[in-house]
Amino acid sequence: MDLDDILTLAETGQPSPLELARARRVARAAQGQYDLSVVDGYEIIVDADLVDPLTAVVDEATRVARAAQLAKLGTVTWTTGGGKSGGFGHLTWSDEMAMIFGHAPGTLRLTPERLANLVHPADVGTVRKVVRTAWDRRRPDEVTFRVIQPGGAVRHVHCHIEILTTDGAPSGIIATGADATALELARQERRRLTTRNEMLCADLAALDIVTGLPTRSYLTDEVDRARRTTGGALIVVATEPTTRLPDALTDENHDQLTAEVAQHLRTIVGDEVTCGLVGPGLWGVLLAPAEEHAEAPEALTARIVDTFRRHLFSVQHKTLRLNTWAGLVLFGTGVVATGFDLLIDGEHAARDARRSGIPTTVLNKPVAPRDRIDKCRSQVRQAVSANRFALYAQPIVDLRLNEVTRHEILLRVRNDTGESVAPWAFLDMAERVGEILTVDKWVIDHALELIGRGAQTSHYQVNISGKSLADPGLLTYVTEAIRRHGVKPECLTFEITETTLIENRNEALAFATGIREIGCHLALDDFGTGYGALAHLKYLPVDLVKIDGVFIVDLCRSPADQAVVSKLVELCHTLGIRVAAEYVQDEETLEFLKRCGVDFAQGYKTGRPEPIAVSPEKPVRTIELELRLPPQQTAMG
Amino acid sequence: MGVEGTAALTPEPVDSEAARRAEAARLKAEHDKEFAAFAEVSYHTVERILRAACWDREVVQDALNEAYLHGRVQWFKIRTYTEPIGWVIITARNKIRKELHRRQREAAVAPEDLPPAPHTDIADAWEAQETLRTWLHHLPSRHAEVFQMSREGFSNQEIARILGLAETSIRSYKLAAKKRLRELAEEAGYTDSESRRRQGGSRGPR
FRET pair for A363, CA 20 to 30 Å: which of A240, A517, A585, B104? Predict the structure, then answer.
């Protein structure tokens, strides 16, 4: 069946008796009303034209214009004038069209130039072209354009363009149109909404990429909501391999193990319970207030620990047991402690359990604020004084040269078993209790020491928390360390992380200006998330912006990310700032970044972080440091 | 006033008045009958044409009720027109336009927003008409109206005059409408012609 068949079939249909009855009803109703008006002596006003449309003898231009007028449409008529004027002929518009253009009827004598001047400059070309083509091809067309009214107001006008004929020969053009502003705006709004829907992304930051569980910040917010509304219980589970993991394990193996633990935890607690990854080997489970028949939080905690301890995990075909402890914090509604405070309490409780050699520690209420802060601070200070950190270097590729020209110095925290783990949970804690400066100073001192001992062939990027910038002594400390370790300042870039936490703008500006005066560069890390305002780009003397990984991980599949990245590059380059991208995981992304003009790329694709030294206390190691620096490599690996 | 004036001029007012009334009544009865027949014949054609461009059935029916009422009021004039149906179409179209303008519907739903017609098996004339109508709503209203009128048997000149268009445009609009309808039919999966298939079948057994 095709269109012709359907048309033929449709036309075989005769009105059904029901439909015929409907037609008769309409006729009867009209007749009835008419009769009533005759009897009652009132007149039914007929506002339609009373001319026979098929016999009226008028020229086509007048006829079309008259029909348009009845339909409240405006017309512009352009006739050749029989060729006698030689020029453009005769151009007129109807009163309605004059008003659409914002002019009182009859006040303007139209010429093509004058008409063109009333059309929005951006649309004149299109209108001319459409009219010209319609005339040349003797074919009707339509066009939407903007007019600028005398007061400066812009209106959208839609016109049908038709060719007039007199005695069979083309004699002019008539445009029938109306103000289509409302229609056009509605169309644009629909288009905008479509784009918005396509571009809107799920909140990537809420879920951890490896485990699919909520992240630390998400869980913190959820705990905070619980303490403001229902109260509940928070379990923090700490896991740790019973035996030392073989050194040969790759990052993928670690991720695989983490994902397996996450899945196991999910199975134990069920899908309704919020649980998340709150630190390396640290898991948080948030429980709503217990219903009568539900399992008590204490029992669930014991069950998690017990199940974890019994389970045989496997990594790289080797079985592995996890030693497990847990801390349980019970909290009521409206406790003063924030979500973060409760999380810290849980972590401490789990740590206490480990230290005392018991499976779980239960806190019936949150710890007193003073005790909590003291405990956190001493934990940070202890870590600093015991050098429980390690520095790693991750290569950064200069995309113009396609080779590694820089390294970012990354901090790793050594956990209770001496393993180096990612520092984000530790840094989050240190930042919140105001001890981050101590950590930053340790990093600066040790990083510069390592750099100073090396050949300084690369460029090094060192992180400093936005919060530390409030310290007036920081600039002196850095300057002094640079001098002491003999580091070339031009080989250093300081990356400001957590720009949200810049507390004192004046101090931050003083540090930024000072650090650049001695020759170092300044970068903004994780740009585009948090509250890292564009204003920073305006007043901070930034040399480099590092786009946050959430815009990069899914870059090739997300038009929204592509828009953000490409425009950000444009913006930064306009401001004289270079751009780096982190979390680059595949070749495709790398290619896209090159096309956008991104200056630097960093990520597993271009090189993983590698340890640069075990301990600065043993100078012998510095030779090893040289060897351990990842080899110079191209982006192609 | 006019009636009184006329009456004053006639010498025997009572008799001629009665005769005149009888004549008027006869004429009215004749017009009534004529109008009823016209309405019954024309109603569905007009409705199909209007519904080709306006998707809101209620609006069309309201406009038709009003147009036929006005048609009856002015029937003594309209009955003399070449095609009274043309006048009804014009009047009803203007009513629809006014109503839509009042409701601001045009801005709310443009044709491109209508959901595509689902592919169902077209079994009878009514289903064919409904399917065509949904496709016509995807066309610019000028194209749809012109197309439907031409299918109803109106000539190009008649269409141009009734719809207030230039005569040269009609051919283009018809072609454009047919082209777009064919595309829509193909999108919906109606591609193979039955008549062609019959011809193919007549080639004989393999």
Answer: A240
Alpha-helix residue ranges (DSSP H) falling in A486-630: 505-517, 535-539, 559-574, 587-596, 621-628
Q: What tokens appear for A56 in the block?
A: 């009226």
Type of residue numbered A85: S
Q: CB contact, 8 Å: A20 with chain B?
A: yes
Helix (H, G, I), strand (E, B), or coil: what is residue A428?
helix
**Which residues constitute the domain of residue B16?**
11-109
Q: Which of A6, A30, A187 sits opposite B131 (nearest CB)?
A: A6
A624 confidence band (pLDDT: 50, 70, 90): very low
pLDDT at A88: 64
Average pLDDT over residues A292-304: 84
Q: Cβ B65–A5 below 8 Å, yes or no?
A: no
Question: Minimum mean pLDDT among A193-197, A439-443, A536-540, B117-121: which range?
Answer: B117-121
Domain that holds residue A281: 204-367
Classify residue B202: in a domain, yes or no: no
Nearest by CB to B39, which of A23, A60, A190? Answer: A23
* Higher pLDDT among residues A567 and A10, named by residue: A567
B16 and B87 part of one domain: yes
Provide the pairing of β-strand A544-547 with A521-527.
parallel
**Nearest residue to A459 via CA among A616, A602, A620:** A602
Mean pLDDT of chain A: 87
Three-state DSSP state, A630: coil
Whether B94 sits inside 8 A of A33 (CB atoms) is no
Residue A83 is predicted with a pLDDT of: 53
Interchain contact, B132 vs A6, CB within 8 Å: yes
- CATH code of the domain covering residue A575: 3.20.20.450
